[in-house]
Amino acid sequence: MKHTAATVPSDIEIAQNASMKRITEIAQQLDIEEDEIELYGKYKAKLSLDILKRLENSPNGKVILVTAINPTPAGEGKSTVTVGLGQAMNKLGKKTVIAMREPSLGPTMGLKGGAAGGGYSQVLPMEDINLHFTGDIHAITTANNALAAMIDNHIHQGNLLQIDTRRITWKRVLDLNDRALRKVVIGLGGATQGVPREDGFDITVASEIMAVFCLAKDLKDLKERLSRIVIGYDVNKKPITVKELKVEGALTLLLKDASMPNLVQTMEHTPAIIHGGPFANIAHGCNSVIGTQMAAKLGDYVVTEAGFGADLGAEKFLHIKTPALGFHPEAVVIVATIRAIKMHGGVGKEQLKEENLEALSSGIENVKKHVETIQSFGLPFVIALNEFVTDTEAEIDFVQKWCEAHEIPMALTQVWEKGGEGGVDLAKVVLAELDKGKADYQPLYQVEHSLEEKLNAIAQKVYGATGVELLPSAQKQLQQIIGEGWAHLPICMAKTQYSLSDDAKKLGRPEDFTITIRELKPSVGAGFIVALTGNIMTMPGLPKEPAALKMDVDEQGKAKGIF
What we know:
The chain is an alpha/beta fold. The protein contains 20 helices and 25 strands.
């Protein structure tokens, strides 16, 4: 029986009424040793990197990557399905660990709200995870801004490296949406206040340090990646790195504790490792390599997710994270909802409750494109149709028959309402696909391909575009990147999440379009080239009515309004 909105408590009410086990019990489920866990209260802990050394020769569990169709304001519930599938796998007796990203305060207090799942498929403690958690993102903010301070101090103290103040690319960061900080002027007030120059802020989860943090495999690798970060250029237009500023050691020290993955639990006590959180429409949108590796050593199965749709998070997981990880997913789950499919078919948000098979027939082309993308990587997949109360039997039947006609494995999920039990059918279909052993992972481009070939491969094979067009500024940057020897790096597309194109308004499956590249930004430490398209902002702004307006805390310290 489907719940109606009137009878269902909010996500935070469900989470606050849930019973949690002490985190030491969750660690014992995974055979983690007593000296390998550092407690952050009763229900959160950090895991020692020594676990990876101890289990170095143990086989990896099978990784299941959860992605989605292009998201809509109607909501798809990708994180909810990730949690629900992990719970369902454990219900079936499979030793499963969930690996997810840490939520950013920017979207939590802005438009999107929290990112800890929903309903009866949440990770706990939900309020902590959505707010300050164990301080990892604050540590990344501090490391980023420590580097910024070192750059300006170096210039103030004589500028031995001859840094060109007009060509400093390193920005300060803040883990909040604050459009007023996108462009600022610093160093005003006279000779003792530093050297005046233009600067700006990005959101912390778009910082290259966040990407470095999530792609490093250990502290040594973290330090080496940090040292390679390019902060700007000298007066001769040659790149200046962190290594030349001699601060990679200090930055690594600031990130030492944060580099340990966080262990929490779901509502049904399934272990969850939550670590790192780069944006997927700006950065590479995947949790940390260390966190995923640890989950794979501790569990027989890992359910992990990548941000937004398969055109962003999954593509970046498979081109950027997989090489760093050293192994690939064995299966992919593509989350879709009837509401979102109808929006891609041209229905406005206000009309989504009305049955509309014609819009489903049109919008399902978006689903088909994401299926084709995963197929092109050589990976088996399953459609998870995440059920909502407004879905009609005719609409569900339409999607099921469409999947049957196209020989696409699918399962209806009710994990928001029923927790793990609502994901058992999905888990069984996923396990059946895993048992077939069909995974034959192939990237869509090779490292030796030119940057333009890589850009076109993503645009044509993933987005369905005719190709890319580089604006004059990007063409100039391309030549500099080639000249510096960075052309072997993979591409990280900064693109709207709402459309397969670079225009957020083009829903469904657009045709006959090009992707316009306005800027190419080398992230040498992270190990990729960021290609900025459309009007993507690396510092988002707040909406007219931010989610923060509904947040509060009572006199007993109980949080309200986080969703």
